[in-house]
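Recall that a protein's primary structure is simply its ordered list of amino acids. Everything else, from secondary elements to tertiary packing, is in principle encoded there. The following example makes that idea concrete.
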Amino acid sequence: MSSFGNQGAAQAQNLRDSGIPNDNIVIANREDDYSKDAQLKGFHVEHDFGKAAEIADVIFLLVPDQVQPKLFNEELAPKLKSNAVIVIASGYNVFFKFLNIAPTNDVVMVAPRMIGSSVRSLYQKGQGFPCFVSAEQDASGKALDVALSISLAIGATKAGAIASSAKEETAMDLFAEQALWPNIIVLFREAFSVLKEAGCSDEALCYEMWMSKEPAEIFERAAEQGFIRQLKLHSTVSQYGQLKGALSLDGTAVRQHFKDILHNRVLNGKFAREFSKIEAELEIQGDDNPLEKLYKETEASELGQAEIRVRKRLAQ
């Protein structure tokens, strides 16, 4: 049993192509474009999540983190077989114990480190993709075997099933979202302002810093050749400047900042509790949505306003 979102659609098709009979795959999805797509692709669709849970031997919980607790606790858990296997692709709700899981159920994590479209396309190319795997609750004594079998069936083992845990996956995921990328956003924002004060134009800055897609290419080369060694693709001036500059910076304050976020916001559940309080508000349409408020506040920066101006000029 699976929903048919980005990951659900990819994994369901990969399972079927790996030999799982179509009659053994049920897509539990509300009536929307995703369910129509599942039907067009020949899958059996059940709009009643409880009915789907009643017949499921293995349930792939592939819905957004903020949706999982209500859906699982209210609609799935009361109908789930006592020996059903629960498969998660994100450790968030299991690590923070937001799901009311019976002790008789196996809980395994099979978490592709790719977006759904890549999970599908790489499978079709026979290449596979890396995947985090763990047994979070081993009621049957065979939970890890099941996790590895699922990983094999969706195509992950061709690239590597990496032993992990819900804690590790959650820690790295939330840390990247709340420590690493916020600092990158701030670095770009402040660098933009400094260069703007030095007389650089909006267009030049936007293209030099990100719109040329050069940063995306750098990260792609880093994935292929190594985070440090990809620097050899840059000019000698660039290599020297980046290496010398990085070694001259004292990362002590940044390291302490990162530790504070990891231990005092992520792992202790502070963020999870904070986010739970505003989950309902995320369904609000318009300016009262807390996420939209954050977008507006962030886009009010000099960088944000400059990009809006540049994109408007390009559209003319």
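The two ends are 49 Å apart (CA to CA). The mean pLDDT is 94.
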